[in-house]
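Input sequence (219 aa), recorded before submission:
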Amino acid sequence: MSKIKAILFDFDGTIMDTSDLIINSWQHVFRTLTGKDGDVEKIKKSFGETLWFTMDKFFPNEDVDRCVAIYRGWQTDRYLEEIELFPGVATLIRWLQSQDIKLAIVTSRAGKSLKDGLDEFNLLKAFEVLVTCEDTDAHKPSPIPAQIALKQLKVKPEEALFVGDSKFDIGCGNNAGIPTVLADWAGTPVDTSEAGYEPTYKVSCPREIMKIVERTNNK
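Predicted structure, token format:
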């Protein structure tokens, strides 16, 4: 394996603990449209998909843009109050910067809320590249979002890692030819048995990513 020059991170469930906020936002949509809560496990399995894709899947007879507006309208006022960095993530990012590793985020979240969330924890300037759902019509597990980040970072796929908590992150990285890291500290249910979704590494805490970089770059 080549030396690691860049790491591409997912945001929700990887950098930021947004699980409760996302679930509660979905439940607001379900209650608004159906009068009852949705299945939490089905909601969790949708983590990593774009809002429009999942809305169409959950509410095929509703106007998707209206559904997204209900979701975002509820979440916007609560977003910065309810999100938290996962333990150890800030330390990992600072360490990667000290090692001159280029950093990017590849996410299905919209750009403004991504930037607001990073800025809230003084991390916005740490990331050289941000690829959001607004930057391409192709979304994870398509390789295109990751390829956009690689091009802007000017690194080859084999010189990067893609870190995420969902099968869509792993699929995106794999399809782009990037070694992948499944971060399971969010507790997101992930089926990695399907062909194309097997991660190169699986880690339980951010410090393990430091160890991967050290082992790879100090050979």
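Checked by second reader. The longest strand covers residues 102-106.
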